[in-house]
Amino acid sequence: MCVCHRRTFRELMDLVLDRGGMSCEELVREGYCGGGCGMCVPYVKKMLATGETAFAPGDWVIRERTDG
């Protein structure tokens, strides 16, 4: 969830799908997420890459370290 903008990852994914696709940078630039503390950005990037909308805390860190 983007706490600063009070949007769930599901809401963000629905927005991306409704618009036919958006990048993380576009979501941030248009004020949908990530413009406050930025803690959601790695999760938003993972959401866009995988379609997942539910994450355990730190999940992006664990996967990023084991993927490369």
SSE succession: HHHH
- DSSP summary: helix tally: 4
Low-confidence stretches: none
Write down how many β-strands occur, each being a DSSP E stretch of 2 or more residues: 0
- Using the alpha-carbon principal axes, give the shape: globular
Distance between the termini: 26 Å
Strand fraction: under 5%
Mean pLDDT, all residues: 88
Can you summarize the main beta sheet? none
Describe the model.
The protein is mostly helical. It has one domain. It has helices at 9-18, 24-29, 41-50, 59-67. 19% of the residues are buried. The mean pLDDT is 88.
Provide tags for this entry.
68 residues, mainly alpha, 4 helices
In summary, what is this structure?
The chain is mainly alpha-helical.
Element layout with pairings:
Blueprint lengths: L8 H10 L5 H6 L11 H10 L8 H9 L1
